[in-house]
Amino acid sequence: MSRFRYGPRLAATLVGLTLAVSACGGGSSGESASYSGGAPAPAADRQAPRLAEPSAAPVTAPGSDGVPEAGSGGAGQVKVVPQDRSIIYTAEMTVRARDVDAAAARARQLVTAAGGHLASENSDASSDGEGYATLVFKIPPGDYPGVLDRLGRDLGTRESLRQNTEDVTEEVADVESRLKSARAALDSLRALLKRTGTISEVLKVEREIADRESELESLQARQKSLASRTSMATLTLNLVGPTAKVEKEDDGPPGFLAGVRAGWEGFLDAVAFGLTVAGLLVPWLIVVVPAWLLLVVLLRRRRRRAAARRAHSEGFLPAGPPREPSGVEPVTGRPAEGTEGTEGTEGTEDAKDTEGTEEDRSGGRSSTG
Question: Confidence class of residue 117 from pLDDT cuts 50, 70 and 90?
């Protein structure tokens, strides 16, 4: 009875939960994604165009020094938006310092005083002025502009600066909305699991719960990553010595000369690569080529000896004077006297042979009688 009672209800409940989760997930990328932290959507929409304008005046958040980033010509200034937006700040700055170790210590002091911390460090001390250090700092967004300006002025001469901001407000709102939907769906499925009666219904609900839990864990990990990236700005600080070489990016416009320069650089890189490969092969060639030549000589000698033995065993070597062909009479030492004399002599000899044969026959008959 329980099977017929809960079967249609279970199917209807599962379909309803699926539609609800799909609707919440789709709606989160529309209206819900346009605001965060309880701020009204129109205010967020009004602030969004200001983020895309590179020449707009910087907005200073509460708690910052109010000192804009010291850019060259006023370009590339840091803009900190109000707290109702979720922004990821990243920057990379190269500073030439007289003493790399002292500059690194000063940078750590400034960042720690602003509430930040050192995430990673890679340094190489050198006494000839070519030392370097790479430090990755995590800085609160409110103090990020002031700290960036202080580092560029106090540590030495700034060589380069690259900054990037990414607005992830909509993504944060979308993840939060999907998390709420996933938690609600899990609560409904767990309540439904207590009312199921047959084994097949229990297995279906448990499979659905497992899928929802996996989705919930993925959303929680994504939310944690976004919170970590938006709560602290990331600054990569490169400190170089007085004589260290710094590769500067060429921001020249593309064109024919730029293509020729790029092609020439590619050709030089290919030549350098070929020379490197040749240098790697030289030690091998010194060892392999003589061994290969010696092997070829030995194989040729062995083949010649084998061919000589085979020819001797098969009788290809000459064993005596050449034989005359069959059907040809041997040449006698008598001089030729002419055609008639020769015929007469041959006729006389034939007659003598005939007479001798007849005498032999007659003698044989008489002895028989």
Answer: very high
